[in-house]
Design brief:
The chain folds into two domains: about 140 residues, Creatine Amidinohydrolase, Chain A, domain 1 (3-Layer(aba) Sandwich); about 220 residues, Creatinase/methionine aminopeptidase superfamily (Creatine Amidinohydrolase, Alpha-Beta Complex). The chain is about 35% helix and about 20% strand. The chain has ten helices and 20 strands. The strands form six sheets. Strands 5-4-3-2-1-6-7 form a seven-stranded mixed β-sheet, sandwiched between helices. It has a four-stranded mixed β-sheet with strand order 8-9-12-20, with helices on both faces. Strands 15-18-19 form a three-stranded antiparallel β-sheet. The two termini are about 45 Å apart.
Length: about 375
């Protein structure tokens, strides 16, 4: 990712700080987004000077290699021999942050949320006004830069390859756990850095659990099989769901057809300037007209980025407006006990005219 893109984020953040009369922003939960590296415990963004990256001594070399931030300060909780030229502060991380804030003379600080008592300890050693303002960074993260879109496309491509593997692996007699393992292995082979959430392979009675976990249950005929998976590429996540049918009943086929129609109805509304809840309404109306309103318990989608669930939210209560450059999922689902569950999810890039599909699957979904 280009340094320019990351510096633009910092400049936008500083403008928000200025509007709120703050001296600095302390990021604990958004270090990778602001520093360009996972090797960080905190980032301090003073309004009038350059950012400071706080990292563990163990991560110092990685931080220097990956981050665009030049002022990197490493801590160690215990004293240890140092290499030639190595500078380490023998402090706890919150103590080093406090030292930096004092050095900067900060008195009004915004931050992105509590983490393991970090802020409580910090308040105890550096007297200042602290305001929890996670929304400042979350709003920035809605809009993806060109570099971020490239990474998300790659992550989505790997997820699509994983779903192709699932389509080839699903068969009566095989276990959910076995299929999930093969899918994860295939995505790793394709370049995934890991999974942003545990792969879901949910068959039969498990398919009507929206957040099912993989079990040793073996797949049987006359069952629906929900596969929900994601990959990561340079930290950026993907999210994709398909529902496979093993010799489906008429009721199960209807569920699949309605869910796919609901997704198409929602996709038809996706474009810059549209209210996010309008997209949700399109999917929800399609499902309600088919008589399944009470079996659709979640929103129709969400943003995707460094986290698999980000803003915007595609739900009935959402206040978000879609903008060019957002990457989100569209994922209507129906879950009926003793019949089956079906969910269909794709990642899309919002454009001025409409959208671009980032995930795809060519394999047959109805299996004999």
């Amino acid at each position: 990712m280009s340094g320019l893109s990351l510096m633009e984020r910092i400049q936008k953040l500083k403008r928000e700080l200025d509007k709120r009369g703050l001296d600095a922003f302390l990021a604990i939960r958004n270090t990778r987004y602001l520093a360009g590296t996972a090797a960080g415990k905190a980032v301090i963004i003073p309004i009038e000077s350059a950012p400071i990256l706080i990292c563990s001594r163990l991560e110092l070399d990685q931080a220097k290699r990956e981050s665009w931030i030049r002022d990197i300060r490493a801590f160690s909780s215990w004293k240890a021999p140092l290499r030639r030229g190595e500078r380490v502060y023998f402090r706890e991380p919150w103590q080093l942050v406090a030292d930096c804030l004092r050095e900067l003379g900060t008195r009004a600080i915004g931050h992105d949320g509590e983490k393991r008592g970090f802020m409580r300890k910090l308040r105890g050693v550096h007297a200042a006004s602290y305001r929890e303002l996670p929304e400042i960074v979350l709003e920035l993260r809605k809009m993806k830069s060109k570099e971020e879109v490239v990474l998300l496309r790659k992550s989505a491509k790997i997820a699509s390859r994983g779903m192709d593997c699932a389509a080839e692996s699903i068969a009566a007699g095989r276990s959910e756990l076995e299929i999930a393992a093969e899918v994860e292995y295939e995505m790793r082979r394709a370049g995934s850095g890991g999974t942003p959430f545990p792969v879901i392979v949910a068959s039969g009675r498990n398919s009507w659990l929206p957040h099912a976990t993989v079990t040793r249950k073996k797949l049987r005929r006359d069952e629906l099989v929900v596969v929900d998976l994601g990959a990561t590429f340079n930290g950026y996540a993907s999210d994709m769901t398909r529902t496979f049918a093993l010799a489906p009943t008429c009721k199960q086929l209807k569920l699949l057809q309605v869910v796919k129609r609901a997704q198409q109805a929602a996709l038809a509304k996706v474009r810059a300037g549209v209210k996010a809840k309008t997209v949700d309404t399109a999917a929800r109306t399609t499902i309600a007209r088919a008589g399944y309103a009470k079996f659709f318990p979640h929103g129709s989608g969400h943003g995707v980025g460094l986290d698999v669930h980000e803003l915007p939210s595609l739900a009935p209560t959402s206040k978000d407006i879609l903008s060019k450059g957002m990457v989100l999922t569209i994922e209507p689902g129906i879950y009926i006990p003793n019949v089956g569950g079906a969910r269909w999810e794709d990642m899309v890039l919002v454009t001025r005219g409409k959208y671009k599909l980032l995930t795809k699957l060519q394999k047959m979904l109805y299996l004999p």
